[in-house]
Amino acid sequence: MALLGQSFLDVESLSVQTIESLFQKTTKLKKQAPKSLGTKVLGLLFFEPSTRTRASFEMAAFRLGVKPLFFDPSQSSMVKGETIEDTALTLEALGASALVMRHSSPGICRKISELVRIPVINAGDGQRGHPTQALLDAYTILAERGQIKGERVVLVGDVKYSRVARSNISLLLKLGAEVAICAPSSLRTNDFEAGEVKFINNVDEALSWSTVCMMLRMQIERQKGFEVPSLKEYSKRFGVTVKRLEKFKSDGILLHPGPFNREVELSVDVLKDSRNRILKQVENGVYVRAALLSEILGVEV
Ligand code: CP
Hints:
By secondary structure, this protein is α/β, with parallel strands linked by helices.
């Protein structure tokens, strides 16, 4: 595969063949015991909060016998004014084999990848992209539905501020899925060409059209103001409820990248629905990231 020693910054630069081999390796890794500790070190630089992605990369590193090195910006020399560039160069000089980065600034991972000689992996850059989330979501669709091509995936909610949505739409279109957006007009995106993505205004209609429903978190921390009248109003119009799921295919699947806002994007009883695969996404994330790390770091599995 073409990933050895390379940075991983977006889904757009992945070929379908590379994605397919990654998914084959993911399935292989799911069946394997963790390897014993080797000499590679993975620097984890999270400048924004994370539960899933950070822990998932740590678990993925553990499975490959790679040592995760967690960097806490709030306890670092960045507090004394050291720049992100000098921080990355310092971690490289300390011996990190690759850096995983999450930051609020779009494009920062690419910028750092052009500065250091080790690979940089994008774990979320502002609203721009979250490519490993898109990979694990696509793998989950493949594992649970048996295919991606021809699946009808609807993204419900705050698409405008969602890096998950941007990476997912690019990847799913590349892999042959039909993609729709169901969002308030204030929370849609213009990033995709007319005709590439379908717009559905009504959640009931979106649920009856789709085989995969991907709910998206309301990105309150990124929204600029009054994009929706209130969360209660949003939930009434766009929240997924058990009642609304009567319209959804009996073998469809429900996804959410997490974290979710209970009673906003979904009502809590939806979590008990047999079509819910939210924790499967979390589980698959470890193996997809392990497959990616194995390729980038050249760790045999
Ligand atoms: N889905 C996701 O990126 O979750 P975290 O913010 O918890 O990493």
